[in-house]
């Protein structure tokens, strides 16, 4: 059998204007802490409707500084989903706090407000909300719970730039929010991320910590805080600014690919397409289907791989990861919805440049794979 040409799992949406923006910075000689970083911060803040933005080297760095800026540390607990990328949880350990894992809703995979309210306790200081796969969480309910329990809200919106909840853009719904710009995200800076907030103290602390703990207006070699090198370089920032110029176009292309997948996959037995609630505007980060019970996901993935179509098991629950078990013991059985869903979710190749013929090929192979794996 002749192996088909491989389809890419993800791909950044790059244009000649992006390349020119990076080259312009290289020619300028100003490669760090310059005007492109400041422009990216200003543009993102304006876009989401928050007064402050702090550009950093990754979405993980932004999450870390969000917790630091809110003063989360030893003895504190942070409510967080397990159905997320590892960074949502690892930063909690890094500041000395303890995660309290919360289950998810069975349709859109965001935090279950009922379980949040059930698990909020005396030591709970913050709620980490994840707008998973670009679908906004149930913000009205979560904000009400956080208000009654005196919780600060960190919005991990690293997968959700451009998403909206009831007409409000994700990024200005919590005390602090974060976005990531890795190459598979909606827009990219290569590596990079940003923190947005309406709290001037959080913003000031984040600016200091990203730059080795220096004071914003202090001498270059004075370090009031123990900080980090989380700076975003000018080349990366210039790429981000250029990408923002095309953000609406990029989001629209990704939405068209998702709609094409919806059309192609909706009639395949054993495959459930993503649910998008009517009160949100989805920002498509990945396209994740759910296989029916009894379908062997490993067999499906092997079948697809053999035909040059990569897939990913999105997500593997964080509360079952070795680094968590080492710190918190065996947590199997504590999040029934997360654990059931995580064995059946499957991410398909997805990006805005995916051709209709490739989407059709993915759909046909998935139908064959599921039929064979039942």
Fold topology:
Blueprint: H1 16-28, H2 35-48, E1 52-56, H3 59-69, E2 77-81, H4 87-94, E3 98-102, H5 113-119, E4 124-130, H6 139-149, E5 152-156, E6 164-165, E7 168-169, E8 176-180, E9 193-197, H7 200-210, H8 234-244, H9 247-265, E10 271-272, E11 280-281, E12 287-291, H10 297-306, H11 322-328, H12 336-342, E13 345-348, H13 356-373
Parallel strand pairs: 2-3, 2-4, 4-5, 5-8
Antiparallel strand pairs: 1-9, 6-7, 6-11, 8-9, 10-12, 12-13
Helix pairs in contact: 1-8, 2-8, 3-4, 3-7, 9-13, 10-13
What tags apply to this protein structure?
alpha/beta, three-stranded antiparallel sheet, seven-stranded mixed sheet, 13 helices, 374 residues
Task: Report the structural category.
Answer: alpha/beta
Helix and strand pattern: HHEHEHEHEHEEEEEHHHEEEHHHEH
How much of the sequence lies in strands comes to 5-15%
What low-confidence regions span 5 or more consecutive residues with pLDDT below 50? none
Report the average pLDDT across residues: 97
Global morphology: globular
Give the biggest sheet: 7 strands, mixed
Q: What percentage of residues falls in helices of 4 or more residues?
A: 25-40%
